[in-house]
Structures are given as C-alpha cells and as structure tokens.
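Table S7 (text form). Paired inputs.
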Amino acid sequence: MRLFFVCAAAMTVAMVSAGCNSNTPTTPTAPEVVTTTETFSGSININGGATHTFFTTATGTVTATLTVLDPAETGTIGLSMGTWNGVSCAIVIASDKAVLTQVVTGTVSTTAGSLCIRVYDTGSVIGPTNYEVQVVHP
C-alpha cells in the first residue's frame, strides 16, 4: 500500500510538472513602431512653393495631412512627398489638387532616411496663402 502511495504521488508531481512545461510554440510579437508627428507651416505665393525635410528612423507608413489652407478661397494646392538628397526633393507621391484635410500616404522601406514634403501652387493661389502640414512618420 505504501509503495502505491509513493508511486501515485510521483505520478501527480510528474503530471503537474508536465503542465507547466508546455511545448506549444509561441509566435514572437513584432515590436511596436514608434511614430513621430511633425508640423510644418509657412506661406506660398503665386507660382511659389516650399519644401520641408524630415528624417525617419524605421520602416513604415508616412502620412502628410494638409491641416491649414488660408485663405480658404484658394481651394487647392499641390502637396507632395519624396526623398531628400540634400539639395532637392525627388517627388515620389503627389496630389496636385490637395484640399484641406487631404492626406498623402507613402511607405518607407529603409530603416532610416531623409524625406521631404513639398507644398506648391498649381494655379489656384491668388495671393499669399498660409498652410500647415502635419507629418506622421516612423
């Protein structure tokens, strides 16, 4: 009887231990991408434009949103995104008829890089026009 009790206790300990040591594989979770929000503002004139540069530190999605366009009668302006080579903005994505709240979206495929936003007149600017663009990037 005593031997049976010892064996039963040993089996119970073995079963409890087996439950704690699961061989079920776990899927690693990707690290959360930290984003930065930058706001660029200025004024453009008839036939004018302005370029703003920023730096990304990881791959991921970049969005640029036109948050201010004043005077509102301007209607549309150009809003583009591209790569910055230290001298000029090589446009990759453009909206030549951007309206207030317009979003331009791109994807960064390298871990770090210099990008740019360009705001410009496409024939609708009738005088000094104030703008603000909010950029969210990794």
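Next pair, protein 2 of 2.
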Amino acid sequence: MEKQSRKSHRDIDTLLASQVLDAEEQEIEDALSSGKIKRSTPEQLKKRLQKMKSQKNKLVPKVPVTLRMDKLTLLVLKDQAHTQGLRYQSLIGSILHKFITGKLVERK
C-alpha cells in the first residue's frame, strides 16, 4: 500500500513538473521559490475561510424586521455585541440563526 502511495506522489510530482505555467502562475511560483511570498499557515487559512464565510452571508438578501423588546434587554445585547466586536443587529441575527438550527446551547 505504501509503495502505491509513493508511486502516486512521484507521478503527481512528475506531472506537476511537466506543466507549462502561464505568466501569472510562473510569477507566483518564482515568488514562492525566492521567498518573496510565503505559504499561509493553517491559522491564516482558517481566518481567511471565516472571512469568506462572513462575506458569503452578506450575499444572502437581508429582510428588514421590526422587533419590540424591553430596553434593558437591548442594552445588554448591545453591550455583549460590543464586547464581541459585532453590531447588535448581527448578534441578534446570529442568536436567532443558532436557535432555529438547534445550535443554541443553554449554559448550566
């Protein structure tokens, strides 16, 4: 099994080495080889993925909603949102989304 895996890796390496790169791809390859740019760490990739997901959510149309709640609840929500670096409307939307998807967990 391991021989097959090594062989397939060699085949992939050979295939990649024989690929003809366009100008942009060659520029990226040269920059990686020379150290001008570095590969992303898993943490950086995770942050980028989270950013992409948040941007994806912005593509889903939002519908305005009017909601009445007591002032103290709103003040606490705004404070929590500020603590988390969010807008309070985003926090409310997130809480509601977690609730309907069953991901809102009650603390004990």
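The chain has a mean pLDDT of 79.
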